[in-house]
């Protein structure tokens, strides 16, 4: 007798509940800012990716309203039929100029960008070697291709070289890595990785979802941070939903990359174009980050202060060097309980367990932003001190 839908759903949910991994997202009752209202409680928000405070920024809202009024609610079609508005192409030119690449294309999310670009580039006979901690969207994107797939140890250029030596091909060779790793907050060693890739004739593919708007001059990203802009053998992809405050994804690189993706990237070919208001907000964000250097200065000042104080209190931040600041608890039950107690203290910081992070490394991931004040951070640190003591995680 076959399994009914109710049986399958109940069994899966029961399994998640029994393992302590069942998620029930909290609901925001106000705009996603450094201080907001969640489930009826005023909180300091350490859970968002709103690095530069753009999600509710006046300049972005004004441009969104302007584009909404002029261009309407939606584009009305997929890009390849009748959905490419002039503002779409202007945004892509703006991104290419900002990223110092030959071309750029905007898709609907960072997740679908990885699916679309990897699917368009890779074919049977190609070789792709991916960092073991790469984002789920990369893993899923690679599953859709017929390329030979290998995984190298996290951020280990020597292991990457070993795999390139052991597995050669006459096809395309692609080395794939996050720029900033979203759960640990560490940087890919692009200086070493690109050198190894070039030695073996491989292209480097960098998902810079958490590096764009955070790393490099004016937030140009991790590729810029390591000095590889203008490089035709480096592909940059990422999201427009984190530092840029909107939604969407981008792919930037070789001058011909855009044209290939227009013809081959399935998420681009079969999805209605981005709404004009979103395009306007993103265009304003790219202008604002270059106009106001204090945005990134505040982001990094806050990052350094928060990390130093967490370390002083005795928390393990897992070697993070970016605004992503994990606090390690080990088991999911401890991380989720710490998150609950922090919320009672007026701090919104979410616990993460398997499969989002490896087993035994459950944590709370904190992200400070340019919008946080020192009072916000001190409030959060006091809450961490109280919770750490109550759970026996720290003695401070």
Automatic annotation (TrEMBL):
Protein known as: Glycine C-acetyltransferase
CDD domains assigned: KBL_like (cd06454)
Keywords annotated in UniProt: Pyridoxal phosphate, Transferase
Positions of the Aminotransferase class I/classII large domain: 42-383
GO molecular function terms noted in the UniProt entry: pyridoxal phosphate binding; transferase activity
Cofactor needs: pyridoxal 5'-phosphate
Species the sequence originates in: Deinococcus koreensis
Database matches in Pfam families: Aminotran_1_2
Segments forming a coiled coil: none
Subunit and interaction comment: Homodimer.
Family that this chain belongs to: Belongs to the class-II pyridoxal-phosphate-dependent aminotransferase family.
Gene3D superfamilies: Aspartate Aminotransferase, domain 1, Type I PLP-dependent aspartate aminotransferase-like (Major domain)
Keyword Transferase: yes
